[in-house]
Each structure stands twice: as structure tokens, then as C-alpha cells.
Amino acid sequence: MSPEELVYLAVLAASIPVGFLFRYLSPSLKQGVSLLLGLIITIATCRIHTLHSFFTVLGTWLIVKYSWRNAPFLSLAWTFLYLLFFRLSTWFGLSSPGPFANAIQLLLTLKMVSLANEVHSFHLMKKEDVRSFSKSPLIGGLSQEPSLYDTISYSYCYIGIMTGPFFRYQTYFDWLQQPCPQSLPGRVPLLQRLQFVPMYGVLFLVINSFFPLAYVRTEEFLEHHLLFRLFYMTAVFFVFRMRFYAAWCGAEASCISAGLGCYPEGALSKPGGGPTVNTAPDSSDTYDFKTIQNIDCYNTDFCVKVRHGMKYWNMTVQWWLHHYIYANAPFKAYTFKAAWTMFISAYWHGLHAGYYLSFLTIPLCMGAESALESAVRTKLGPKGQSIFDWIHWFLKMRAYDYMCMGFVLLSFRDTVNYWTSIYFCIHVIALACIGLGKALKGKGEKRERKSDKEKEENNQKIKAEN
Length: 466
Known about the structure:
single chain, 466 residues, mainly alpha, 69% helix
């Protein structure tokens, strides 16, 4: 493990037992102590680069305070432009931010855009209440505009500050105001979330030792058989998954121990977004932590479709992308909206070409599976559809293996060199599937037109005979 990974592990490991102590603090103490811990972590790991996150927070607060009507657009522009400056800071004679500053900046960007949208909705609803002389039943809406202290406290809350999951300001506020946090579930859901983490960690260390990523960049790697080169991406993606499964399950555990994101099951909470149904407090309620669930390991591996795989991976960020990027995309067609969302996601991750090559391959794969589903699967019987789904699942996993290589190799040259060594197989298969789907659909439509024509001719003959 790298020194950075050890620091991440230490922060996560310490956050879990500390979280239980927050259940005994008053709202004001909870807010102050969580802010203090977050600042300690940030300053200790980022040092002078802490200023990047502070300027981002201050700029967003000013936007929200003095231009709430345009806050959603302005906050997105401000935080994403600052991300560009942050990543190109060496061009301006500044030192390069480290991985910890980058991780904090990424999550802070999500928080600030979400906060601006929440405040915008709060003001709109307040104006509506004044017009109608009644209080609107807003689900998960703010009851007051956050102060500068509230904004800073939310931004630097120690929970998930470097690892996520993303959570809205309303989720943070609800956490502060929990009436009886000691009575909320903690130990059982915590153990359930951590039960497979040791296995994920061991598999990550073992498989990574046999299939190091650096080997892909060597000339020796290209001398191996094609099947070995193909299998290598499967091993790399497996290591990638185990690493994030362990990290994100641990991050969720730090939320669970503190009680963050704990809502009644009847609230039908969504990862990232929180409750979707208003519920009255009830002592008989059962609770869940869906709001802070960031990974569904089983469904990530075993769902059938590429598009579904994305819904189960980094789930809180997927919610953010859907509500703030996809919903406001400057296109109407699904394919273009998906491509736009993937482009923004790639930009959020970084400026490395590998991100863009990988993320922009996703819409192509989605188009391929949609083409074959409409042209082939819908015309099969139950057994045929089952076989189709197994083949579809296998190709989905290989597509993610393939795209993962761009995500981890990062550079355009390394990514294209690897994809060239396996003959751009996923791109070729995806294009072939789209072509086959269109061809089969065209033949089906031609047969239907021919059948309709024959029926019409038969009807005319019957009428003539009568």
C-alpha cells in the first residue's frame, strides 16, 4: 500500500469509533467538534493547499448570499472553474496540490453545488408560501438559509471529508438536530457494512501483487499472448473494485457510527438525496442508512446492463450527476444527455485523457445494449432471454474492465497503447452490436410492412369476392 492509502485507512479507522461519541453531543457541540476534526484532518494533510478549499467555500457562500436566483448556475461555474485553476496551479507558479487536497476539493465541489441548489429551492418555496399563505409540503427542503458558519461546518465536517460519501446540507442539518441519536441503530448496521471489508482488503493486496498496473506500461507486457493481455484488464479491474469496495464500505461505516443519514425506512431515502417521503416520528419506526450508501457491491458485479452498473457504483455521486448535470443537460436526446453527463464526470475526476476516453465509451456501450435489446432480446422466449442476459452480463463486465484501464492508466498514450494491444475489442464489439441491431430492426420492420401489405391485399380480395 502507498503512504497515501495508509493515511486514508488511518483516517477511516479512527472515524468509526469516534463517530459513536457524537451521538452523546448537543447539536452545537456536534457541529463545532465535527468542524474542528475536519479542519485538523484537512490542515494536517493539505497544509497550505487548505486555502484552495477555503476559497471555494467562501466564493460559493458569497454567490448564495447575494445572488440566490442564479446560484445553481453560478456555483457550478465557480467550483468547476476553480477546479481547473486548482489542477493547473503550477502554471501560475504555485506548488502542485497533493492527492489529499485533490480528494477534499472533489467532494467539496459536489457539496457546494448541492448547497447552492438547496438554498435556491428554499427561496423559491418561501416565495410560493407567501403567495399562497400556506406552507408547502417540501420534502427534504431547508427550513432556513445556512450562515457562513453553517456553510463552513458542512464543508469541513470530518465525516467522509476525503473519501465520501457525498451528502446534502439537509442531511447534515438533520444529523445535527437528531432528537435522540443514542436510540438510533448503530452497531448492527455497522457490522453488516464492515463484514466483507477484511476480505476486500486481502483480495486487493494479494491480486495487486500478482498483477501490478505498472507492468502494463512495459515492453515486456506487449510480448505476452493476446489472451494474457485481455485477462490482465480483468485482474486490474478486480483490484480496482476491491480497493473501492473496502474504502467506501469503511466510509459508510463512519457515517453509520455517527448516525449520519439515518432515516425511517418509510422515508424511502435515496443515496445522496435523502428522504423522498415526509414521515412523522414514531417510536416503532425501523431505520436505514440508504442516504449515505455509496456502493452496492453485489449488484455492481452481477447486474446485467452497463447503465445499471453505474447506478450501483459511487451511488451518492451518481445521484448528484443525475439531478444537477443530467437533468440540466443542453440536449434532449438520451444518448447526448448521457454523453454530456459522462463528460462532466470525467472533468470532475481530472484532466487526464484516460478519464475522457473511458467515460465517453460508456454512451457507446449503452447504445449497443439498447440496440440489441430492442432488436433481439424482445423477440426471444424466456430461455432465450436468460441466455441473452448471461452473455450481456459477461460483455458488461468486459466493457468495465476495458474502460477501467483508461481510468487507471490516465495518460492518452498509455491508454491507447493498451487498447491497441487488444485491438480496441470493446469499441469494435459495441459498434458491431449497434450495426447488427439496426440491421435486424430494419429487416423486422420490412417484414412487418410486407405482412401488413399482404393482409391488406387479402382483405381487398375478400371484399371483391363478396
